[in-house]
Design brief:
- By secondary structure, the chain is an all-beta fold.
- It has a domain of 72 residues.
- Helix content is 0%, strand content 43%.
- It has no helices and eleven strands.
- The strands form four sheets. The chain has a four-stranded antiparallel beta sheet, with no helix packed on it. A three-stranded antiparallel beta sheet has the order 1-2-3, with no helix packed on it. Strands 4-5 form a two-stranded antiparallel sheet.
- The radius of gyration is 15 Å and the shape is globular.
- The chain starts with 12 loop residues before the first strand and ends with a strand.
- 20% of the residues are buried.
Length: 111
């Protein structure tokens, strides 16, 4: 079952913190929330380890996020999540983006 799209004309803020992604309504109420698994880390030589927040991208209908290293999932304003696709994984996959119409997924992989 696919998640319900955002209602037309609705605006939401996104908050990603502590392994949780939240959709925040203009009145500051939480519209939806889901847990997000962090990706693996790659140590920087001589610099220690940096853990970046997983990438998040919003279309006109859903919010998409990377869960772990390889799974792209969606979140609706109603709180439903769905697996969307898999991307090559590991600490070198640094970003992804979905255009507003969400017809194509683009990702960046280095190394």
């Amino acid at each position: 079952m696919l998640p319900t799209p955002l209602p037309p004309g609705e605006a939401y803020g996104l908050l990603l913190t502590g392994g949780t992604l939240e959709l925040i309504r203009p009145d500051a109420a939480i519209a939806a929330t889901t847990s997000v698994t962090p990706g693996s880390v790659e140590p920087c030589p001589g610099q220690g380890i940096a853990r970046l927040q997983p990438p998040v991208s919003a279309s006109n209908a859903l919010v998409y996020f990377r869960d772990g290293d390889t799974t792209i999932r969606s979140l609706s304003a109603g709180g439903k999540t769905a697996d969307v696709t898999m991307v090559p994984g590991g600490p070198n996959t640094v970003s992804f983006e979905l255009p507003c119409e969400a017809s194509r997924l683009m990702y960046l992989q280095s190394g």
